[in-house]
Amino acid sequence: MTKTLKKLALSLLILGTAFQLGAQNRGGRMPAAVNSPVVNPDNTVTFNYRNANAKDVKVNVQFAGTHDMTKDANGVWTITLGPAAPDIYPYCFIVDGVNVMDPLNPDWFPNETFKNSLVDIRGNKPLVHSVQSVPHGSVDYVNYWSESLGTWGRLVIYTPPYYDQNQSERYPVFYLISGTTDTEETYHKVGRTNFILDNLIAEGKAVPMIVVMPYGNPSKYFPAGTDLRGRGDMTTQDFIHDIVPYVDANYRTIPDREHRAVGGFSRGGNQALSHGLRHIDMFSYFCCYSSYTSMDIPVYDRPDINNLVNLFWLGVGTDDFLYEGAKQYMDFLDSKKIKNIKFFTDDKFGHTWMNAKCFLDQSVPLLFKK
Q1: I need a surface site. Which of 13, 76, 85, 254 has the fewest CB within 10 A?
Q2: Considering all CA atoms of the chain, what is the largest pairwise distance in Å, rounded to the nearest integer?
Q3: H, E, C per residue of 275-303
Q4: What superfamily in CATH does domain 138-366 come from?
């Protein structure tokens, strides 16, 4: 060990000792370590939040709703809820009326507005999004120049296992858009797209593919207060004229409609169908999760529509607040005799990312298989 490292180690030791002595002088004992969230063996979850000065603390968690927490003598607010079915659930603390993430939890929900943490209840067997001992793909964080926007945009891009080794192989592409207030990270960090694809590919259920996760709200690339009036439909222009060409130019894609799919959750489902159906020359696979789109798109009336669309997959929870609109859209497709696959859930708390993961797992095996 060099003299510099020895001095640094000694300094840290002295500092730690001084901190302990100070704490003992103030009260005799160090505060007990607190962890949060704690997933218990019975799939209940204990949430802890240390704040001796707070007057009222609640927890809001997707599997149980909002509940008051109780403060102990050490200023730690706590509650145990559940049990819950194994899955990943967002939650936050409400501290004197203000929503805050769990400061003890490094797993958080990327979003423009609400600030939630994530609790991962793993259960006794692998879930669709579990990290398993299978070949894993890679995830790239990409900045691309958008001529349509006149600024830089962001993408998260999954490439399948062995993409870097198999330099001669080209792959189909699935464009996957997340929902309102979500970011380009949400399908990766909350939807666990990379692990779902890894598992499906390893099981032989899905073909190896590239998955592109864009930001569905490019207006957020601009400083707050920027006047964007007169810019037109920035989302579609950016997607069609910048994102797709960028991916084809920088990744080993198969750049034709037979090897492009587009899908999304919530607002992203609407955007996916709108982008794809209005550009049927570019896409032939469509997935809509917990959403629907306009019934006034010319392609619906084309006599060859069922030859143009290789897959029309629609999923929604019967307890989703968008269920009625989604069901009406399904009925509309049926009235037009447009072939489609419908999938319903009733056990994933409505308009949630538990459903988004389920729908992804159910639909991806059908992509790029006529």
Answers
A1: 13
A2: 83
A3: HHHCCCCCCCEEEEECCCCCCCCHHHHCC
A4: Alpha/Beta hydrolase fold, catalytic domain (3.40.50.1820)
